[in-house]
């Protein structure tokens, strides 16, 4: 009972980390840069979804579509103003700039959305269903499925489609890609839009299980980055796998050893794993495939 | 030339500074008021607590001033935001005392901020009245001349009351604890352990969780497996609701006896219908039949703050009620002292005979050894029902 409920919990929470971590993966494989405001993008998705669906009473599909669109737009803004000016000069300034951008967004939301945490109810998170004797909300099963689906889609897109191959070509050799007629700037901008939309989707999916407030994404963003590195940031399936593993470790440590030790053990495992496998779980394998 | 210029610059600056300080000093001399300072969280996650305290203090001040004020002077409230940051709290307290010359300080929700102000108040002989933060050592600070008083709950007493309630209401034999992983959770872990030991009771386990934990099922499953029959919960409103949602998922219907965290926000909305199962401690509630004093204060609040329409808007009621009584007690102490001298006010606090307040009828609220006006008999247990905090009869 203890073990089974921990495994179910771990997989569900882990897939949320995986989803946000996929956003880090997408920009990294295309541009070698990462948007450190992913946690804030996740929060933005949840806050916008709540605003459209609950405050303005829009139908849910429209609210979700609009929230994702605006998240993608935020990604474009991040790339244009917080990454491109630095990356094109060969500076690492985008590291700090994206962190700062996230803090600015968190505070803007604090002032506009309000200080009180709010609830975003969903029919998928009201009546628990029994799974091997452990209760889970249907939404907790939907999230891993969405995570796996997106992983597969990303894999196929990057490996089987022309656009995907074009995006990957950008990171290998920008000049060669440009000579081949690939618009490098557009490719990188698109990858940022995709990454923030993924984080926004994660935020929308997590919202009914959590509460919505301006700093809800902070810890998620950090854990997701640990997951991205653990999985090997160059591999979508590695990142998703690491998400599941990290969620499982957290839940199992809490259940078997006690919650006092959860963070210590979980992050120690990440450090130990990286010491043994510097490229992450599947990082190297994926790099060869390209 | 350059030298001359800079000299005239300096003279100009000195003159300006003198003029500015004269201008600043003027109102203090000109209008005859007694200033009282508040250092509380007016922004950030706990901003609502600061708002409630200001409302409670302001309604009391209006009432006192309408009757002619204290020592023939009107009372005036000066508010400073501590942003829940202890260092900023001390700076604000110093500024209020040294520049605004306040006769007494009032504190806010955060125990760490109040703890930082306590030594400053004692050293500078300024009465410091706590109206929210429940940390035990705020009033029991060991200073030979203690200038800190409080009209609020005290963690050590709250923990005793939680244990007593769990036994009386649910016949608890082996309770478990689910506590937020921060200093507040830790202080209550100590208090709960001590309270249980006093009763000779074992506990099923102590589990911690984080503000950002989506799923608390693993912790709760451990408590369930070790046979917990009641849960003690200490956490703010959002994490508290994560505990309730996780219990729903597990299908574990266990009584929850909680500190006052859920009162700080929209607990009904966040936790769903099962939120009503959480019984939490309060010092006051505006719901139910009110005393004439309660009716009067509620009417005054509605008149002064038009955004208060229903009882659901008078939240958090504890902040308003504690602040209201604390201001009245402070006014009594200043009147009794016959001056705004800190040491005299401190002595006067300990000599107050009685005050018929909002929370209760205070009889000798403070003494040389007891600086907390509320005792565990003054706590009430409440729960959320459709967005309102309702008192429970037990």
Describe the structure.
The complex is a heterodimer of chains A (290) and B (394). Chain A is mainly alpha-helical and 290 residues long. Chain A has one domain: ABC transporter involved in vitamin B12 uptake, BtuC (Orthogonal Bundle). Chain A is built from 12 helices and 2 strands. In chain A, strand 1 (129-131) and strand 2 form a beta hairpin. With 394 residues, chain B is of the alpha/beta class. Chain B folds into 2 domains: 31-153 and 290-375, 3-Layer(aba) Sandwich (Rossmann fold); 156-282, Rossmann fold. Chain B has helices at residues 2-30, 47-66, 86-98, 111-124, 155-170, 183-198, 217-225, 237-250, 267-271, 292-304, 317-337, 342-349; strands spanning 33-40, 74-81, 104-107, 128-130, 148-150, 176-180, 205-209, 231-234, 256-258, 278-282, 354-356, 361-363, 380-385, 388-391. A 7-stranded mixed beta sheet of chain B has the order 7-6-8-9-10-13-14, sandwiched between helices. Chains A and B meet through helix 1, strand 2, helix 9 and helix 10 of A and strand 7, helix 7 and helix 8 of B.
Secondary structure: elements and pairs:
The complex is a heterodimer of chains A (about 290) and B (about 400).
Chain A (H helix, E strand, L loop, with lengths): L1 H30 L6 H18 L4 H28 L6 H20 L15 E3 L2 E3 L1 H23 L1 H11 L1 H6 L4 H23 L11 H14 L4 H21 L5 H15 L6 H7 L1
Antiparallel strand pairs in A: 1-2
Helix pairs in contact in A: 1-5, 1-8, 1-9, 1-10, 2-3, 2-4, 2-8, 2-9, 3-4, 3-8, 5-6, 9-10, 9-11, 10-11
Chain B lengths: L1 H29 L2 E8 L6 H20 L7 E8 L4 H13 L5 E4 L3 H14 L3 E3 L17 E3 L4 H16 L5 E5 L2 H16 L6 E5 L7 H9 L5 E4 L2 H14 L5 E3 L8 H5 L6 E5 L9 H13 L12 H21 L4 H8 L4 E3 L4 E3 L16 E6 L2 E4 L3
Helix pairs in contact in B: 2-10, 2-11, 3-4, 5-6, 11-12
Structure, briefly:
Chain A is 74% helix and 2% strand. Chain A has 290 residues and is mainly alpha-helical. Chain A binds chain B through residues 1-2, 5-6, 9, 12-13, 16, 110, 115-119, 121, 126, 128, 134-137, 206, 209-211, 213, 216, 218-220, 251-252, 254-255, 258-260, 263, and chain B through 44-45, 47-48, 181, 207-212, 214-215, 217-219, 221-222, 225, 237-238, 241-242, 245, 248-251, 265-266, 269-270, 272.
